[in-house]
Design brief:
The complex is a heterotetramer of chains A (about 325), B (about 525), C (about 550) and D (about 270). Chain B is α+β, with helices and mostly antiparallel strands and about 525 residues long. Chain B contains 15 helices and 23 strands. In chain C, a hairpin with a 2-residue loop joins strand 19 and strand 20. Chain C starts with 9 loop residues before the first strand and ends with a helix. The chains are: A mainly alpha (about 325), B alpha+beta (about 525), C alpha/beta (about 550), D mainly alpha (about 270). The interface between A and B is large, with 53 and 53 residues.
């Protein structure tokens, strides 16, 4: 098992290096100069050159890259050009929030999808099934930010039940923090549950037609037991893969949702840093998200045998 | 949440990107004593005046440090740490007499030694003082020497006469050339914290959350009323807290709920629902900024003044200003802002839109309908909107503009190298008309940012710098303005207003043309 | 009928099953007026081909009909109690505890996500309410009964760790652990090879006798009926054709359909005609060794696995040679190698005297047309996106004939295989037998000198098998190609081949003319294989 | 099987009118729109829906109905172009990876992994920043983000198909690898790809609107539903129609396309009898 993990991680190293180089080049290909951003419209050439030298941006690109990579390998992602804060700290601080929203939302979406998809498949072609499939299909068609704005308008403004923008760290006030997170989490849950429900329903339909389900029924097991013990684990395995992919992507930042709900999350940090040409932050964030993506997918693969023991036969 | 109906009423505008919560937290953990809470859209970048800076940084530090002189409301220099000064007949030697009663935040008294140390520090290249270039080869003058015949007198000798010397020293982006105690840096010269003489001293700075200033109890204000950055500066509250709230709807919600006292620098569209509330007071002050359409006169197509004029003639400046600033801005085709004392009848002349004439000029110029690129960005909503409106207006005369929306860094880059055909650009407040024209006039080879590169304009601009006489300068500015309208190197569009809203229990808040938040003399009921 | 049985264990009376839904309204029922009895401890077969409704009949007993199918009439009594009147919970008490069911596909009838132990325990917990220790004790004992090595390890293992035969034995264990009065076995061994099939069925008989359970064996294989059951019920297209003792049904079938079914049993002497030794050798295999590359590691290639070890074989022009063996014996691999679809690791294969590995491009082009392949699985061997005409024509893609002649040739071949009007259909619009005809047409359209047929009839029903084999014989006689016929079924061998080669573990264990090998098998493995082929026995019974 | 028949009917029953009305709208928009969708009317900003402007006007007094009509054309064209590029490129690479396997496969998988490891929106953001904001760079950015998923689907399908016996049959009659791919693998890869294309179309449309929402969408004054939505944000309370109209347009179109995709999936299923 350990050697498998090591092998998997080793296989992803080239990917990570590729990602780093790509990020490094792309961000520098974007027109715009961080020094200019810092100094503004009236800055003179000498001051610009000075700031560039301070930031090490006057060195040749390969030198900059190697130096960045060397530091990154030692866990030092450098400091933000804009705020001067260490990038690693910035990322972790923002990631905590994104991770909280994403994990809660994806868990909720998975639970909803598992229950709704399984039930719909079980009562296939009934009114209930139609309702589930219909809702899931409609949900798929709604842009997440539009949904977010509508929720904000409804619950934040018209009804005033929930605080509508901003975020309070848990360390400051747990209750407030939770209240602020309700709408982003709900939005993301709704958005993500559409695909997962459809996936769960179709794999449940496939599993329900298999002999071992009939066999379980032929043993005299009740429908509840048949569904939870025999259908669910097998139908859930493909959904789990999708959950993993979803997690991997969402943990990389939910820029749009964070924008709608003004959450200082990782996605927003990345977008803002691109817009400010804050090279170290962009590089750090993307490297970090790539690692997260790889690790999440690895974790999902490691969880997979829980639902489908055939997979352990590597 | 109890006041949901209020919230609902007021907060429609859901522009988004920030954190109200951070502000609320900051409010909850506020220190004892009275706290005045204002808002910044983004965090400050350093605590060192005039070096690593932006507008917010300037605003904070002007509460903490003071220069020898400070700008009055009208932009003219007034006594601050120097009680008076004299200028030699040749205009080269400035002799400042320091006030005797001033002490630094660390308790040390102000003497000529600190002044000389501070000025020399600014003049060292490694300090990266924003205004160092003004005292270099191409600037207003070089500093020949700084001496102190006695502890209360400082003599600065320049290599040539420089009427702009004091107006430069007071500039906010130069940090007001604030005088610092040498303990502001450590033994190696690295920056620690500003130890100044201002009415407030630097408090806690929590990144992306707030910047706090504490009342400096032993501050002795000048007599008289507040006047720009000069005059009587009174610390009326124990703490000033600038909350970092990027999102304006969050900020407005905070203001309405009472989590914020002052909301400055609103975009016109953000006023929806705030204006006219009884518990809020709305202020609108015209400022010295300038929104303009820059034209690259080196472009083969646009080097033809007829086409440039045609574009200008399609623009209904009044209509555009009204639509884009929601009636808060003032149309102005001259580079000199309406609020400037130099904005006379010549400057007040507005170009009459004339689509028919524009069409004639377009034909005369032989324009074949090819797309002309118009660069803009969304740094503030107005810049983007201007582009959309100009595009639609130009289309009426058959001029095909193609909007290229880039992000702010790219916009700045393009501006800096002059790589565009048309560009919407905004310029922050310039206190002196020379500076306002200086935005446009210059040698393109040396500085590609300049759009107006004619020997005559450069010559006239030089003369405005060398002269100290108001009437003479006015005449020069009038000539420049007429040329500017005729040659169309750019189309000045409007000056906006600084829009702010304060809660009605806030006393003494007043915005001013320099558009920099100024919270001394402001108290709470 | 069956009035002699005083108190039947199971009695079906007038059972009728229909498809539900608008589209099928008014169409014929899937099962019509089915009535039969099963006495306690009796072994009864329900015989029929695909579409006969035999599986639906079995499932309706437990009220486990698939979605979209409904029982609309009739009574199903278990010891006089009408199961159709039971509530859901009451029915669940019957399932498993009184009636057990074994399914066809061992690969999908055990839950892949649960350990064997939990799956065995489930029924016991539900119906017997035993303690954990007792459940474990009984499970172990039962696994031992079905001859699973290391039963305690088996309890914590997952189904995928076992072969098909083992899984089917575990399945039996799981069902019979509850000591049901009736065991319904739905084609329990169709997916297994000859030897495993025998093993599983013998076990089933043994265990059923031990527990006194009656068995309802659902099958299409008359051989199994003859060997294992006392009475048989014959179904065709949802209708009851005939009921009687097994002997009656086999020896004196009354119903025309039953007669046809019985006639499809492999009988008589070898059908294939031997060719003289002087006939030209088309394929000459010498000391062929074939391996598969192993699973490659991160940095190095894997170690190859040898599946064929030094095989010698000659196939002469006009001759049908059968290769017989269990799965994994290397017979399929050898067939692929002869068609140059699989490289040799050692040895040589010559086609018309030319070494395969050293053919020139022109020779290879020639060879590709002269040597054709017919696959086992008519579902996977035909491209589902192509029309039948195009599938057949694809063989001629590299032949130098003009399009008109090509189309004519394709039509002619389709006519020969009895599919003249099927040219525009897609494979999924055809039955299994029809698809296999397409596969044969595809092979013979290029007038090959050699056809390698890899289990071409294993997936077909008995009567269809007969038709396809007859077609194959006809075409072979007509075109005179040499044929290598790969199969696991000795009954088929006897109907088609003149010579047989028996393979086991990658080597040839026995070789000779069909009559000689069948009457006087020399090798132990051949003898086992012959003994385990029930169709031969049934055929002998029929005479 | 019954049920599926019923479902196909329902999917198509709702999907076809939705997509149909979209196409009709685009078609009408080619010849006629109530107003010039680009002309501004600074005298009448934020007009509510009424007789003259059925869907009201925006902050520059432009007719929302006309802008939605033009927006439908642009949004759909961008989504279609994105899908076309991603599908073509992804199918080609997926066929290569799946059929050739070995190092080609490993290299391609590494590259798709690398692209997938980027947060999609950010990749698009960066690419658009590099190439400038234009229809072309949006299509480029979105198709770059989506191609890897196409590669993966195609590759997986090829891997399962290449084990089927008819591939061996193709080889046994002497087909070259290219012939096998074109005649036998491609036709079997297309149905899942067609179904994937309908999903991609939806994702592309959503992403285009998300990019506009973040401020880097299709350059003005061309309206897309996404940038109409994004520009409506400040006026959500005073002019709710500005956000409701494009929001419903996006949702309706995606619903229609997804339903058609479902219908297509059922219709293309070779298992159906």
């Amino acid at each position: 098992m350990l050697s498998y993990i090591c092998k998997r991680l080793a296989l992803t190293l080239p990917t990570l290096v590729l990602v780093s180089i790509a990020v490094f080049l792309i961000i520098r290909l974007i027109p715009g100069d961080p020094a200019l951003v810092l100094l503004g419209e009236g800055a003179d050439g000498a001051a610009l050159a000075g700031v560039r030298a301070d930031l090490g941006l006057d060195r040749p690109l390969p030198v900059q890259f190697v130096s960045w990579l060397q530091h990154a390998l030692r866990g030092d992602l450098g400091r933000s050009i804009v705020s001067g804060e260490p990038v690693a700290g910035l990322i972790l601080q923002r990631f905590g929030l994104t991770a909280a929203v994403v994990l809660v939302a994806v868990t909720a979406a998975t639970l909803i999808a598992a229950a709704a998809g399984l039930t719909a498949a079980w009562r296939r072609n009934s009114a209930l099934d139609l309702a589930v499939v219909g809702t899931a299909t409609v949900v798929l068609a709604i842009p997440s930010f539009w949904l977010g704005l509508v929720l904000l308008l409804l619950f934040g403004l018209k009804l005033g039940w929930l605080p509508f923008v901003g975020y309070i760290p848990f360390s400051e006030s747990a209750v407030q923090a939770l209240l602020f997170l309700v709408m982003p989490v709900v939005t993301l849950t709704i958005t993500e549950s559409g695909v997962l429900t459809r996936m769960m329903r179709s794999s449940s339909i496939d599993v329900l037609q298999l002999d071992y389900v009939t066999h379980a029924r032929a043993k005299g097991l009740s429908e509840r037991v048949v569904l939870t013990r025999h259908v669910f684990p097998n139908a859930f395995a493909p959904t789990l893969t999708l959950v993993g992919l979803t997690l991997g992507h969402l943990l990389g930042g939910i820029a749009v949702i964070e924008t709608v709900f003004t959450l200082p999350g990782l996605g927003r940090l990345m977008v803002d840093s691109v817009l400010a040409r804050d090279y170290p932050v962009v590089q750090g964030c993307l490297l970090f998200t790539a690692v997260v993506y790889v690790v999440v997918n690895l974790l999902v693969d490691l969880c997979y045998p829980l639902f489908d023991p055939r997979v352990t036969a590597r | 949440m109890a006041r949901s109906s209020h919230v609902a009423h007021v907060l429609g505008t859901l522009a988004v990107s920030g954190a109200l919560a951070l502000g609320l937290v900051a409010w909850q953990v506020a220190a004892a004593g009275t706290v005045l809470r204002a808002r910044f859209k983004s965090d400050i970048v350093s605590t060192s005046p005039g070096t690593r800076r932006d507008e917010n940084t300037d605003a904070v530090l002007l509460h903490v440090v003071e220069g020898l002189v400070a700008s009055r409301e009208d932009g003219s220099p007034a006594p601050m740490l120097a009680s008076r000064w004299t200028v030699s007949a040749d205009g080269r030697i400035y002799t400042f007499t320091l006030r005797p009663d001033v002490i630094f935040h660390n308790g040390a008294p102000l003497t000529a030694a600190e002044v000389i140390w501070s000025l020399q520090r600014y003049l060292k290249p490694q300090t990266r003082w924003r205004c160092l270039a003004e005292f270099g080869e191409h600037g207003i003058a070089r500093v020949a020497s700084i001496t102190a015949p006695d502890p209360h007198t400082v003599i600065i000798t320049l290599d040539r006469a420089a009427p702009m010397f004091l107006t430069t020293l007071v500039r906010a982006d130069c940090g007001g050339t604030g005088i610092l105690h040498p303990d502001s840096v450590d033994a190696d010269g690295n920056w620690r914290a500003p130890i100044g003489t201002g009415p407030y001293e630097m408090g806690e700075w929590r990144h992306n959350q707030f910047v706090e200033l504490n009342r400096f109890a032993r501050y002795s204000p000048l007599p008289g009323a507040r006047d720009g950055n000069a005059g009587g500066k009174h610390a009326l509250v124990d703490h000033i807290r600038f909350l970092i709230i990027p999102d304006s709807s969050a900020a407005r919600a905070a203001l309405i709920r009472g989590s914020l006292d002052i909301l400055d620098n609103l975009a016109p569209s953000e006023l929806t629902g705030i204006r006219g509330r009884p518990d809020l007071e709305f202020q609108q002050v015209p400022i010295l900024d300038c929104y303009a359409l820059l034209i690259q006169t080196r472009d083969p197509l646009l080097s033809d003044v007829r086409l440039r004029t045609a574009i200008a003639l399609t623009i209904d400046t009044v209509g555009l200003t009204k639509a884009i600033t929601w009636g808060t801005g003032t149309a102005d085709n001259s580079p000199i802002p309406v609020a400037s004392p130099f904005h006379g009848p010549v400057e007040a002349h507005l170009r009459k839109p004339d689509v028919g004439e524009a069409r004639r000029l377009v034909r005369a110029a032989g324009y074949d309908g090819r797309a002309i690129q118009l660069v803009t960005s969304r740094r503030d909503p107005q810049m983007f909107d201007i582009a959309v409106v100009i595009q639609a207006m130009a289309a009426e005369a058959g001029i095909h503009l193609q909007i290229d929306t880039v992000d702010w860094p790219a916009h700045l880059s393009l501006y800096t190298v002059g790589n565009y055909q048309l560009m919407v650009q905004s310029f922050s407040a310039r206190l002196d008309p020379t500076l306002s024209f200086g935005i446009f006039i210059g040698d393109k080879r040396e500085d590609p940012r300049k759009v107006w590169d004619t020997p005559r304009s450069r010559e006239l601009l030089g003369q405005t710098m060398a002269s100290a006489d108001s009437a003479a300068r006015q005449a020069l500015f009038d000539t420049l303005t007429r040329d500017f309208l005729a040659e169309v190197p750019a189309v000045a569009l409007f000056n906006s207003s600084r829009l702010s809203v304060v809660r009605s229990n806030v006393t003494g808040y007043r915005n001013w043309t320099a558009a920099q938040q100024r919270l001394w003399g402001v108290g709470l009921n | 009928m069956s009035a002699s049985l005083a108190t039947p264990l199971l009695r079906l009376t007038g059972v009728r099953i229909e498809a539900v839904g608008r589209a099928r309204a008014g169409s014929a029922p899937l099962l019509e007026d089915l009535s039969f009895d099963v006495a306690p401890g009796e072994f009864v077969a329900v015989v029929g081909e695909s579409g006969s409704g035999k599986t639906l009949a079995a499932r309706s007993i437990l009220n486990l009909l698939p979605e979209g199918v409904r029982r609309v009439g009739g009574r199903i009594e278990l010891e006089g109690r009408d199961l159709t009147q039971l509530s859901g919970p009451e029915m669940r008490k019957v399932r498993g505890a009184q009636i057990g069911m074994v399914f066809q596909e061992p690969m999908v009838s055990l839950n892949p996500a649960m350990t064997i132990g939990r799956q065995l325990a489930e029924g016991l917990q539900l119906h017997r309410r035993l303690s954990g220790d007792e459940i474990r004790r009984q499970s172990l004992a039962m696994l031992e009964r079905v001859r699973i090595t290391d039963p305690s390890r088996c309890l914590s293992a997952f189904p995928h760790e076992f072969s098909g035969g083992m899984r089917q034995r575990i399945m039996l264990a799981a069902v019979l652990l509850l000591k049901p009065k009736l065991l319904i076995a739905d084609e329990p061994t169709t997916a297994l090879d000859t030897l495993s099939q025998r093993e599983v069925l013998e076990l089933m008989v043994e265990l059923a006798h031990d527990g006194g359970a009656a068995v309802l064996l659902i099958t299409h294989d008359l051989g199994l009926v003859a060997r294992y059951t006392e009475r048989a019920i014959v179904l065709e297209k949802g209708r009851l054709m005939e009921v009687g003792t097994t002997r009656q049904i086999l020896t004196e079938p009354q119903n025309p359909y039953t007669q046809r079914l019985v006639a499809s049993l492999p009988r008589g002497s070898a059908a294939g005609t031997a060719v003289p030794d002087s006939a030209q050798v088309v394929v000459q295999v010498r000391n062929a060794c074939i391996g598969y590359p192993g699973r490659p590691g991160l940095w190095r290639a894997g170690t190859p696995t040898q599946v064929v070890h030094g095989v010698d074989l000659d196939v002469r022009s006009g001759e049908i040679v059968a290769i017989v063996g269990a799965s994994g014996s290397g017979k399929t691999t050898l067939g692929r190698a002869i068609l140059d679809l699989k490289p040799l690791t050692a040895g040589s294969i010559r086609f018309d005297g030319i070494e395969l590995a050293q053919m020139t491009a022109a020779q290879r082009k020639q060879f590709r047309r002269a040597a054709q392949l017919v696959f086992q699985d008519p579902y996977s061997s035909l491209n589902p996106r192509l029309r039948v005409r195009d599938i057949v024509a694809a063989t001629l893609r590299h032949a130098d004939i003009d399009p008109a002649a090509r189309a004519a040739r394709v039509d002619a071949v389709l006519d020969e295989v009895g599919l003249a009007s099927f040219g525009d259909r897609f494979p999924h619009q055809m039955s299994g037998g029809q698809r296999q005809r397409v596969a044969i047409a595809r092979a013979v359209v290029s007038r090959p000198r050699l056809v390698v047929a890899d289990e071409p009839v294993s997936a077909l029903d008995m009567t269809i098998q007969q038709q396809v084999l007859a077609l194959f014989r006809k075409l072979q006689a007509q075109y005179g190609f040499a044929c290598l016929f790969i199969t696991h079924d000795l009954a088929v061998v006897r109907q088609i081949a003149a010579r047989v080669v028996v393979m086991s573990g990658g080597v040839v264990v026995e070789e000779g003319p069909v009559p000689a090998v069948f009457c006087d098998p020399r090798h132990e493995y051949t003898r086992e294989l012959l003994a385990a082929t029930p169709a031969l026995e049934a055929a002998a019974l029929v005479g | 099987m019954m049920g599926r028949v019923g479902h196909v009917g329902l999917n198509a029953l709702v999907g076809i009118p939705l997509v149909g009305s979209l196409l009709v709208t685009i078609g009408i928009g080619l010849f006629w729109m109530p107003y010039d969708p680009i002309a501004i009317d600074l005298a009448h900003p934020l007009g509510s829906p009424g007789l003259h402007h059925w869907f009201g006007t925006d902050e520059f007094g432009r007719d929302v109905l006309s802008r939605s009509m033009l927006g439908s054309r642009i949004s759909v064209l961008i989504a279609l172009a994105t899908v076309a590029v991603a599908i073509t490129l992804g199918t080609a690479l997926g066929l290569l990876a799946g059929y050739l396997r070995g190092w080609t496969d490993r290299l391609l998988m590494m590259m798709t992994d690398a692209v997938l490891a980027f947060p999609g929106i950010l990749l698009a953001l960066a690419l658009i920043a590099v190439f400038g904001s234009s229809d072309g760079s949006i299509i480029l950015a979105l198709s770059t983000a989506y191609t890897p998923s196409v590669v993966r689907v195609v590759r997986a399908t090829v891997l399962s198909i290449r084990e089927r016996e008819f591939i061996e049959a193709s080889r046994s009659v002497g087909d070259s690898p290219l012939e096998t791919i074109v005649h036998h693998i491609l036709p079997n890869v297309l149905p899942p790809v067609v179904v994937l294309a309908t999903s991609l179309f939806g994702w592309a449309m959503l992403s285009e609107s998300a990019l506009s929402f973040l401020g880097v969408g299709v350059p003005p004054p061309a309206p897309t539903w996404g940038n109409m939505l994004s520009q409506s944000r400040p006026y959500m309370d005073v002019a709710s129609w500005l956000s409701i109209v494009p929001g419903l347009c996006i949702a309706g179109t995606l619903l229609g396309v997804n339903l058609l995709g479902d219908a297509l999936r059922d219709w293309l299923d070779p298992r159906k009898t």
